[in-house]
Batch of 2 targets.
Target 1
Amino acid sequence: MERGFDGSYLPQQVGTFSYSKTGGFIVSGTSYTSELCFGDINCKFVTVYGVDQVSADNWLYDTNGAYGIIGAGPRSHIWEGFVDNETKKASYSIELARVHIFSSS
Amino acid sequence: MGRNSPIWKILGSPTTMEYDIYMTNFNSWTFAKPDYVASTPRSVMNVGTFSTDYTSSMSSSTFAPRDVSTYLFELLEFGFGKTDETAQTEYYEDLKNTDDAAYGFWANSTSLALNFRGLGLPSIEFKKFMNLLSIISKGESTCIAAKSGYCVLSDTCDAYYATGLWDYDFKINFGHASTENYIRVPLASFAANSDAEGGLCAIFVEFLDDRFDDSKTIIFGGMFFQSIYAQYTMAGVNAVSVTLFENLNALPQTYVGSKTYATSESVFKIPTAVLNSYALTDRNGLPSFAASVAGITDYNQYFYLDFGSSHTYVWSTTCETTSIG
């Protein structure tokens, strides 16, 4: 069974949030400073929003919510280390394979 | 220790006032050089004389304050980058506080201060350093651009030896100098595993709030002197000079001299990364990616990505749903 975020090891509580809108959710909870390791790329201390209460689930209703959602917006830590110091730009591309939704072939 | 300090009366009011700063490193630099051994066991200041460990035949940089009655020094060059002795090349990004509009009288100035910890950079230069450090640490650095802010890496200092992080240094060339020599001080000079940061590696390049005049200069604090031995001479109002030598305790890449190198291509190359979606948990075109968040004890954690938000949300073990939209 997936246990989710329990605040154990390292995280330090830094605040609370209420009715925050993100990715179709409306959520409330407690924010922490925690370490996030993304793939094999890097580890970094970031503010993580631990959701204690979901008030709305408009996009992923009846769908697994994974362990959470990593923010990859323009101000996300994800881009630190990828910003060219001359152009001030970071760039990325998305290439998804086709997923066969209705058949296994 | 200024020329009007009572300490000189205690010493008989000499015509020429001399003192030096001879520091050892307070934390072992084995993280940057595994077989590092310090030459001297403790830090000392000699007042009224200089250490005999350093002689005039050694390479040094001697310079004077840029203005009478100030202890501000002129910076001709100040950059962060790397010198490759093998390839005989160098590359440095300028970090000099040149912005006249922001810094006015204090533009292009620096001070040497034992009562400051690391390397103080005014806000414009601090933010540029943040970006450069983030690139060479592949995003593992976190810097706070606020008063008392500095940078922290996400592991202990020795973990970055293999990445080449400790090959980077600061290149400094002082104005009003009687020599052509410049100085290179390793980034490691300002690094230490910090108790305040849970034992993680802190880079004490520190934010200076340039709304205040005393924070518009670049400040070389105590950690600078772990790499550089300094001799101060004050013979009168117009005869103040500082001579800097490579500290006998310094790491090998520390340098005082005048060697010139060809400029290489940038040593701040943006890394590229390929994030593969997590095949085990992909659900009908809803890709998830492997990551881990401290505070979740499960293995094989997976997350969705949201390009519309910069915040990261995780579901708590006690998460409840009050209504479904």
Target 2
Amino acid sequence: MKSSFRNFPELKMLIAESMNTQAEEKTFLLEKVLKNLTGEFLKEELEQVSLLKREKVTSPVIYIGTGSCGMTAGALPTLLAIRKFLENNKIIARIVECGCIGFCSEEPIVDVHLPGKARISFRKVTEENVEDILSGIFNRNVNEDHVLGQYKSVPSETWTNVQFIDQIPFFSLQQKIILKNSGFVSPFSIHDAIARGGYKSFYKTILSYTPEKVCDIVELSELKGRGGGGFSTGKKWKVTLTTAGDQKYLICNAEESDPGAFMDRAILEGDPHRLLEGIAIASYAIGASYAYIYIRSDYPRALNILEEAIKQAKEYEILGQDIFGSGYNLNISIRQSAGAFVCGEETALIRSLEGKRGTPWAKPPYPAESGLFGQPTIVNNVETLANIPVILENGPSWFKGIGSKTSKGTKLFSITGNIQNSGCIEVPMGTKLSDIINHIGGGIKGGKKLKAIQIGGPSGVCIPASNLDVEIGYESLEEIGAVIGSGGLSVLDETVCMVDLSRYFMEFLQKESCGKCIPCREGTKRMLEILEGITKRPREESTHETLERFKGVVQLENLAEVLHDTSLCGLGQHSANPLLSSLKWFREEFEEHIFDRRCSASVCRDMRTFYIEVDACNGCNVCQKKCPENAIIGVAKIPHFIVENKCNGCGICFEVCKFNAIIVK
Amino acid sequence: MEEEVENIIRKYPAGKKDNLIPLLQEIQKKAGHLSDNAVHEVSRHMKIPLNKIYGVASFYDQFRFGNKGRFHIQICQGTACHIFRSTTFKSEIEKILQIKAGNTTKDGKFSFEVVYCLGACSNAPVMVINGTTIGNLTIEKLFQELSRIKNANS
């Protein structure tokens, strides 16, 4: 579990420090900002808001991204080094721990905002170079190796020769709506959130709209579920609103368990109050007084942040009984998932919340009519709910103005894999996939060739490099047989073997199949066996076994179709998606594995053999020592030799050789 | 420890079956795993049959019935880590520790498990030892870390 930073006492101290709980600030924010529906301010109030938003600062402010991604990259040692630097130089500055700005591959990112100057951002700030960078910037010298860019802000003087953040290719095509505050607010401070307009839509909603009106607005906005289903959110809400029930529930699905997807985490860790506001509005719209957040157990930091955010919202009477004197009550509680991929499916999630095994049920009844404890229940994804406050704030026609003809709004993607810039991005629907990969992503790492994009994780499909012109959107992706899924984008270059990747996803799904319905339980197992048969070298295979293997291959497509048609839930129905799409676009790779017993990407372990290039080997003995099979023979200072029969293809020699003397065939 | 577990159990009202998972989670957080005794106690208190509790607990990846090792090693097999060939690391760890993923060595020193995505994809491949994440893993780094903890006393 990602709990490395949970145990640090220093961090707790910092968290306490970053929380500003002055009573006047609270009254000001609640009375003058949150409840100010006209948006008009007196001059001194405007000044105060600008200070609270930190658009204008009176003493230096240092921002550090301490999301999980930043922490993995080493943000904690950096943070401690910053504190030490400030202490040693007797500088009084405020440190704000914030969420990720999305540029994960450049983490740890540290921003410095000096009074009168524009906020400037530095990349890859480690323990070692903190002193250099900070002492430089405090003396008005910009460290050119580490500068990322500066933010545009009107009253401040800009830095010369530093590009603006929004001109950097990674950011220039992005349109931040949901992640607008991430990287600016401290997720531990409700004051930061309210100063930037947090909970204003909720206030307006419960005082001036009926639940029906809220459902109408959301339906008009054409917002569709971002968890992968793509069903109209407003329509779904209306079903629950009109169904009679003693107690209705809203569940926020934060069980983000697609490997390679971390968009929801970015919201949870960057701007938790936006999510809480979305949950509050949605609960009001469907008439629920109880909401659950079902969060993934591998996100300990997000959990801490959410717990703190809920506590603060209760303290400020934004959640609880008779909210803002409207008579509406809402209680939000967090439930930690116990780790099961299938619980991302709404009916399985509900079973899990009831304290049972997380197995789905056949719909209908839909949860919107009969869900948690048999009551009308709405299950919405984190990203869907995070969209709600802005829709209520700016109206449905504003939201419809963003995106493409058929898909509205923005979409978060996490881009990972063999790509230059990885991280979490927010782009309007209708953005071209090629722009995401080549412009935002900065192209493929190490000058290799792009092979395919895997979109949507284990239930998603791959899109070959030739189809890169496609626009992001529900319908446009469907045209080429792809799905938007939850938003994981894995970029694959030529070193990836599509057969191996299909096998990998099948292995994952087979492990995660809940076992309730037979097609999925048995089908995924059989498909995995067939794929394993393809990727293994038949060392001593009898004719009968060969026949069986070929029979399996012939049945693979058929089996995939049966699973799609007969499985109970999305996990089974879509389990063959990665495989079928790989078969469609990369059939020759499968054939190569089946007939030639060869893996041209040299990934499949059983199908590769390593050789030593005699001219390059200087006989350093390293590979010989590390070979687990003792397959390498030779004496020191004389080129070695790999015994082919003993080699198991593990590739350790290849990894450890410093002279590029090991080649793979 | 048993007393502490009992205290946890008593905090939860008897009839509310939907509390089962949070209760088991809290016990495991305290005790490190779910012992037979603890599960029996839960069954008596919550009035849920023992087989149902095991049915639920064994369904979810989080629950363990044996203790973790002193060094708990996790290797990420998310999509990004897989692309960067983390499977090699998995089989190497299994070979060096001589246990399969999901088990603990007999001397209780090491336990090893595979996890699917820690969300640290930009540092892939990733390994975690006792909560400390090691990113951009290479085979040499792996050997180094393993020999470091193999030689450690505590």
